[in-house]
Amino acid sequence: MAWYILRRLLQMIPVFLGATLLIYAMVFLIPGDPIKALAGEKPLTPAAEAALRARYHLDQPFIMQYLHYLKGIVTLDFGTSFSGRPVREELARAFPITIKLAFLAVLVEGFFGIVFGLIAGLRKGKLFDSTMLVASLVIIALPVFVVGYLAQFLLGVKWGIAPVTVTAKASVAELLVPAFVLGSLSFAYVLRLTRNSVAENKSADYVRTATAKGLGRRRVVTVHILRNSMIPVVTFLGADFGALMAGAIVTEGIFNIPGVGGTVYQAIIRGEPPTVVSFVTVLVVVFLLTNLAIDLLYAALDPRIRYA
């Protein structure tokens, strides 16, 4: 297992280098001059402009700029934004909030999606199954911002049972409704994925054998059906955690959450490439580590993978 983890970590290195190079190139090679955008309407003196270009390594070739950036990532020195604030402070402030929001969203979509999907799969073709399929299609058809504004208006404004916006501390209670909104689309996919996988596995030979051996209904469902149905669901949930962090910008905007999405959006508006690149790079690392965790969960769920 240790060798397997080491091999997977080594495989992540070229992926990380390629992804960061692509991100850096896309952000820093777009049209426009970030130094002139920083100056705004007030022109900079040639000396001040030269000093800023030297500070952010903009006076060097692209590959040298990337190497300076890579060195900062390795040493955890993300530089400073054009406003003069260290990017690491922005990361330390915003990422815990978005990680908490994404984690709550994954818990919501995972728990309710698996439970409802399991029941629908075991009752395939019956009323509950048909109702869940229709409900999931309705949820998939609704954009996240529609669900967000509806939840904000009904739960926050009309009924007053949830905060309309999230404060700077972003407590778990304040993030529950945004987590439901953020995970609503993925909940529908988890439900349908679990339902199809359970419906397929419940008629498998090993399930019939377990039933014929006299195992209880609960053990057959939890150990033989549900456990073997979780591999595609775990794959989706693991990949979705990173996707939720990257796609939280809409939800964070609706509920005024000071997380990654709002910070990156403001950095794009202000034209701050160091902030944008650093935040997206950390998201890449989250994706890579999440995929490693998925591979390790495979071994726990499927003995064939573990023994191989």
TrEMBL record:
Pfam families: BPD_transp_1, BPD_transp_1_N
InterPro entries (alphabetical): BPD_transp_1_N, MetI-like, MetI-like_sf
Residues annotated as transmembrane: 12-30, 101-122, 134-155, 175-193, 233-255, 275-301
Membrane topology: Multi-pass membrane protein
Location of the ABC transmembrane type-1 domain: 95-298
Keyword match Signal: no
Subcellular location field: Cell membrane
Protein name: ABC transporter permease
Homology family: Belongs to the binding-protein-dependent transport system permease family.
Keyword field: Cell membrane, Membrane, Transmembrane, Transmembrane helix, Transport
Cleavable signal peptide: none
